[in-house]
Amino acid sequence: MKKIFSSIMLVMLLFAANAVQAQETTERKLTREEKKAMQEKLDSLLFLEAKQALDNRQFTLEADQVVFKYGQTAYVNSNTNFVSVNGEDAVVQVAFNIPVSGPNGLGGVTVDGKVSSYEVKADKRGNLRLSMNVMGTGISARVDIELTAGSNSASVTILPNFNSNRLTLNGVLLPLHKSAVFKGRSF
User: Fold this and answer.
1) What is the pTM of this model?
2) How far is CA 78 from CA 12, 26, 100, 108, 179, in A?
3) Segment 55-64, tens digit of pLDDT
């Protein structure tokens, strides 16, 4: 009985080892240049998708890094730190990883507003710059988004109109339907 069991286990191990070896050989077949070319194609498709979302006014910039006025940085959760636009409506939310709940219940602030002066421009290198004003109960700010050419990496700078507490969020720009953000209580 032990011989039968051990021979079955040996055969199963041989099949598993063969499967792992076959997987490694298919992974090795792609050279570094081929992997880089595939990544560039994927990035260009993501850029086109982000550009389309900017043109349609239906996007979310999910941020994983916050840069404060004097250059201090903090790494944050991208599903609770975002700037979102849906037509004429905008939401700006920041939530830091702190034990205090904050006004939005997430450790930060969530503000809703209306978009005006929406303008998208492209520079010589193909980078896109979006400038808009967001006005609402808890916000009156100039919001500038820069989408890097060839990828969906973006940066948003929030410039309040009534103080100089500039805030920059770095992350990725996604169409609204692909976004996975959690909105807290707004003012």
Assistant:
1) 0.78
2) 43, 34, 19, 13, 10
3) 999 999 999 9
For position 13, what pLDDT does the model report? Answer: 55
The residues, any chain, with a CB within 8 Å of residue 110's CB and separated by 6 or more, are 91, 92, 93, 95, 103, 104, 183, 184, 185, 186, 187
Stated as kind and residue range, the H or E segment containing 58 is strand 58-67
Q: Which residue shows structure tokens 């830091």?
A: 96
Q: Among all chains, which residue has been given the structure tokens 């006004």?
A: 103
Q: Which of 153, 145, 92 is nearest to 122 (CA)?
A: 145
DSSP state of 148: P
Residue 6: how many CB atoms within 10 A of its CB? 10
Distance CA(185)–CA(187), nearest Å, equals: 7
Contacts of 14-18 with CB under 8 Å at 24 or more apart are none
